[in-house]
Amino acid sequence: MSNAYSVDLRERAVAYVLNGGQRTTACQIFQIGRDTLYRWLRQYQTEGAFAPKAQGKYASRKLDDAVVAQYIAEHPDATLEELAEVDPTSLVYLDESGVEETLQRPYARAPRGTKITGEVSGAHTHRISLIAALHESRLLAPMRFEGYCDTLVFNAWVEQVLLPELRPGQTVLLDNASFHKSPITKTLIESKG
Q: What is the pLDDT of residues 28-38, one digit of tens each?
């Protein structure tokens, strides 16, 4: 990510426009983009300041502070290595995927000047989806269905297909899909121990 423009440059460019200078000319003189100048003018009018905003996005914490504090209180002598230890044989990975029957290439290659034609079905087709778990290179609880996955489908799969195959003490790993974040999903998985 590039560095922010200096406050001095911001002040001079905005002052030029506020003193009657044209915005296009200001962009050329100060070698800045038009959107940048408009953003600085808007910031000056709303905030009365030129300070650059914080850059970048910071990822939210993955662990709850209260849970970490409680664990440390219960295990005050645990080292980072001990905290990070997870039995790899207890890991169960979950994922889902889907494919549409309308898969086709929108483009093709040909010698210059040669027209390519092809047939594409205009009929409505279905999406085939699959949810499964992976444990020690073994596929667990595969389920195929038509349509898209959502919270209801996912929770039904967890309750009816996955839970009977899980053992207490296993760690279930999910990706960040929105339908994985249901409190019901968490309760279902934790019910297995």
A: 999 999 999 99
Angle between helix axes 7-18 and 23-30 (nearest 10 degrees) is: 150
- CATH annotation of 85-101+125-193: 3.30.420.10
- DSSP lists the bridge partners of residue 99 as 128
Name the region of 113 (left: φ>0; alpha: ψ -120 to 50; beta: rest).
left
Let me know: does 144 contact 128? Beta carbons within 8 Å.
Answer: yes
Bridge partners of 128, per DSSP, are: 99, 146
- Cα separation, 83 vs 141, whole angstroms: 30
Indicate if the pLDDT at residue 46 is higher than 70. Answer: yes
Domain boundaries, the chain: 7-47, 85-101+125-193
H/E run at residue 63:
none
**H helix runs in 99-160, sequence order:** 151-157
Mean pLDDT taken over the chain: 85
